[in-house]
Amino acid sequence: MKIEQALAKLEEITAKLERGELPLDEAIGLFEEGLALAAATKQQLDAARLRIDQVVEQAKETLSVEPFDVS
Amino acid sequence: MASALVFKVCSSLPYRCARASRLTPGSVLAESGYTRPPMNEVRVYTVSELNRAARGLLETELGDVWMKGEVGEVSRAPSGHVYFSLKDSEAEIDVVRFRGRAPLLAAIEPGMVVLVFGRATVYEPRGRYQFVASLVQPVGAGLLHAAFERLKEKLRQEGLFEASHKRPLPAFPALIGVVTSPTGAALHDILAVLGRRWPLARVVLFPSSVQGDAAPTELVAALERAGRFSLERAPLDFVILGRGGGAAEDLAAFNDERVARAVYASPIPIVSAVGHDVDVSMTDFVADLHAPTPSAAAELTTPDGAEIADSVQRVAERLRAAVEARWTSAERSLRSTLRASLAREPRRLVETREQKLDLHVGQLLRFPRASLHPQIDRLRHAEDVLRLTDPRRPLERGYSITYAVGAKTPLRRASDAAPGMEIETVLAQGRIQSRVEGVKQE
To answer: For residue B206, which of A42, B184, B222, B411 is within the disulfide window of CB 3.0 to 4.6 Å?
Structure first.
């Protein structure tokens, strides 16, 4: 899931839970879903490493994508 | 006889004279062999008059001019005026720049080659020949500046700077294009900021030279390549176009009309990031966003990953608090229902409630979070209370319950029974039926 979608979903779950109107089992289900989503989002942020490619014109009119060496 | 003249200043005149000597018109100065013209044909200036005349000549004949030279000695008077000498390989002139003129484009330093605008004049009280500069610019700046302003005005009138043409940038960019030199400081700075701040993004570099004669064409080609890449391969969120700081000439490619137009024509939003904070380039005006430096461009266009991680943490805490609150209220209502119903129909109720409780405990135990444990402890306690009140428990320890046959309530006093009465004793396992032989009151 894209990070902005995950964040929006998390907010939605939290708002639902905070209203406190859900049956207990449903609340617990949402809670578990929320925690899993939060963990996945954090993991995604922590594990991310910037990836760099460069695009050059190969033959005429042909774009070629190559990994770019940062060093 | 004409009146005698006393020449107070002799050395500056082209002939020698005898101090305070009497001269008559037409007299011959034998020593110099110079025949003085008749006095009535000669204009004799006072010093003031001469200085004034020289000044007038210079100012009207020469007027305002541009002059180029190298700055020699510089002195700044407390008054705010700046005095310096300007020279070339053969000559030198004193220049004064009065305070309160147009602000200096750069500090005047010895050795600097500058272009000054102003007029040559004479400082009358001292008869000093000097140049009064109203404008001082490092060489090249003036002409470049004028061309820059002309182009800027032209593009503005064509609508290239219109706010309505500027597109918004996404809050969470996934694919960022960069048009710059693959070996320059700008790329390094941009990657450093993105790596720290928003490593979720992928960067696509479109290499181009950023200075020199080929730079404008290459920049235009790189921008077009970025547009094609976005259409054909993967959509770019935006493109950062820029380079690090440098001399004005080094930044010139970003003032090129072709580059400015390519920025305007780009199908992808462009972030212009050229030079240092103080540098202004044409692409800054046309771009969808203008950043003062390449690092600032990366900073301005991305969210802070660490901040997002923090907010995720906060949301997780809110989740926990919400579910705990929900649990507490469920537990409270469970307890009160239990209390109310225990008295009425002990066994069945206890069993079903216990089962329910077990179910919840089981669910709670699946929670990975330590912060829920107090809730679980409270639950266990409630469970214990229930077990203790279970009427079957005492039977297991050897007690029994005796009923008169057919009665709903157990016998509590011996007097409730009478000899010959049929009774039933409930044990932990099974029942005993018997008849009362005798009753002893105690």
So the answer is: B222
